[in-house]
Amino acid sequence: QVQLVESGGGLVQPGGSLKLSCEASGSPLKSYDIAWFRQAPGKEREGVACAKRNGDKLYYLESVKGRFSISRDDAANAVYLTMNALRDEDTAAYYCAPSRCWNSAVHPSTPLGRGTQVTVSS
Questions:
Q1: What pLDDT, on the 0 to 100 scale, is given for residue 1?
Q2: Residue 90, Cα to own-chain centre: how many angstroms?
């Protein structure tokens, strides 16, 4: 069973950038579709993006299209979420997980881990 650990979160000003990392152990990442999710206090969890095994990339939030980019490096056993032009509303805990990804929906296949906190504030 693959285990994933998120890192790279922090405090950033509006308009800034962060690159989140999702590093795998226990099983090769290339066997899984991997998605990023986020959850802000008092709000429901949102699927952000998915990097599929076949190389396809799916984005689920209109608000992040053109600003966020998902990538994967199977040799490094890692998936990344590069976030540019960050906004206050991007503030949330971000999680990665093996997932089932469709064009219009994404569901984690395992419980989410500890996540990494992203805070966008001036």
A1: 84
A2: 12
The per-residue pLDDT for 93 is: 98
The answer to whether 58 touches 50, Cβ cutoff 8 Å, is: yes
CA distance 19 to 58: 18
Q: Could you write out the DSSP letters of every residue in 75-109?
A: TTTEEEEEE-S--GGG-EEEEEEEEEE-SS-EEES
Give SS3 for 27.
coil
DSSP string, 31-71: GS-EEEEEE-TTS--EEEEEE-TTS-EEE--TTTTTTEEEE
